[in-house]
Design a protein that fits this description.
six-stranded parallel sheet; 16 helices; 15 strands; Rossmann fold; 2 domains; alpha/beta
Length: 370
């Protein structure tokens, strides 16, 4: 039976985009829809809404008040079910015609953080978002009741769904390309020189350089334990992070725009990943474990589910306590690399494929893809 897969907006890279791609792999005959597609050709054949033909596609903040209405006025389709990848308002989606009331299966990366939990996302502090949050909370909860079933990308998010949307959710962790991180990468001369220039025994922090990622906590761990620190990625918080590094007693190296091969090599060379952010899931922690590298993880958030305390790393409650950081890192460094790789395999593409098909097929309306 024909289906349609719906996503918010598409960019070239990102965890949500990886989920959308995996959904299309699981259901290759389904149509694809999004608000607008800025993936530069990564997702051919995906339909865009009317917002894509306006200047608002360049500003999510300005487009946000219109999104619920746009999602409610999708065109007629012959689809008989929909699977929705939602982190804002995509779960509001409704098609016209005979498809108006088709079963809707929602995969929630989270109820919109900057609407429901602005304390976890600085975007929620802006005046336009605060106005939208006040206006749309009731509507958002009401639309969530339309879902035939809801899946969450972690128990952390499932608990948030219960508190905000007042719905139960099945936990289906997102797919991570774990196999590629288990293989020794081949580096070109420039990447090899960068890797060779990094200190031995370093702690790694990797993400987009923005304040809520809490990369400065990796520097704090380095100061508390005497380990050098490598911060990889890029982003607008660079100047602040470099200033903190200059004042730190720990050696701090920055690696900007690492290639995928260099990133894999850095994961493998690090003695541990430091993951202090409160994230809904935290893909980089699984990538690190797939590389055989343990994780010093925030006890709060989705990463506390993927990292097994005392086996593939350690959970930290108080990032301001040098004594706790030293104890947690000691425990982390005792982790077995093979145990890390085994745990990472629990988040493979193959398992996501099985689980997302079972989730949608549970009502018996969808046959398995061949």
């Amino acid at each position: 039976m024909s289906g349609v897969i719906v996503h918010e907006w598409l960019e070239h890279s990102g965890g949500a985009e990886n989920v959308f791609e995996a959904m299309r792999h699981a259901f290759p005959d389904a149509q694809g829809w999004c608000l607008w597609d800025d993936s530069h050709g990564r997702f051919p054949g995906v339909h865009e809404t009317a917002l894509a033909r306006t200047p608002l596609r360049r500003s999510k903040t300005l487009a946000l008040p219109l999104m619920p209405t746009v999602w409610r006025h999708l065109p007629e389709t012959d689809a008989e079910w929909m699977l929705v990848s939602s982190h804002l308002f995509a779960h509001h989606a409704r098609f016209g015609g005979a498809a108006r009331d088709i079963p809707k299966y929602v995969y929630a990366h989270t109820p919109a953080r900057y609407i429901w939990t602005p304390e976890l996302d600085p975007r929620g502090q802006s005046l336009p978002i605060k106005i939208a949050a006040h206006t749309f909370k009731g509507l958002d909860r009401e639309r969530a009741q339309e879902a035939t079933a809801i899946a969450a990308n972690s128990q952390f998010v499932a608990d948030r769904i219960a508190a905000t949307w007042e719905r139960e959710a099945t936990v289906i962790h997102p797919p991570v390309d774990t196999a590629v991180f288990a293989v020794e990468p081949q580096l070109n001369a420039a990447d090899q020189a960068t890797l060779d220039g990094l200190p031995e025994g370093f702690l790694l922090a990797i993400s987009r350089w923005v304040p809520y990622k809490r990369l400065e906590d990796a520097i704090t761990v380095g100061e508390a334990t005497g380990h050098p620190v490598v911060i990889a990625g890029r982003g607008p918080d660079e100047a602040r992070l470099r200033a903190l590094a200059e004042r730190s007693s720990a050696r701090v190296d920055f690696v900007e725009y690492p290639s995928r091969s260099l990133l894999r090599a850095i994961y493998r060379k690090a003695v541990a990943l430091v993951f202090a952010a409160v994230e809904d899931f935290g893909i980089v922690a699984v990538e690190a474990m797939a590389s055989g590298t343990p994780v010093l993880a925030n006890a709060v958030g989705g990463v506390g589910e993927s990292v097994v305390d005392g086996l593939t790393g350690a959970h930290v409650q108080d990032w301001r306590s040098p004594a706790e950081l030293r104890s947690a890192l000691d425990e982390t460094l005792r982790s077995d690399p093979e145990a890390c790789r085994v745990r990472a395999a629990d988040f493979s593409h193959a398992l996501f494929d099985q689980r997302i098909r079972a989730f949608v097929q549970a009502a018996g309306t969808v046959t398995a893809a061949v």
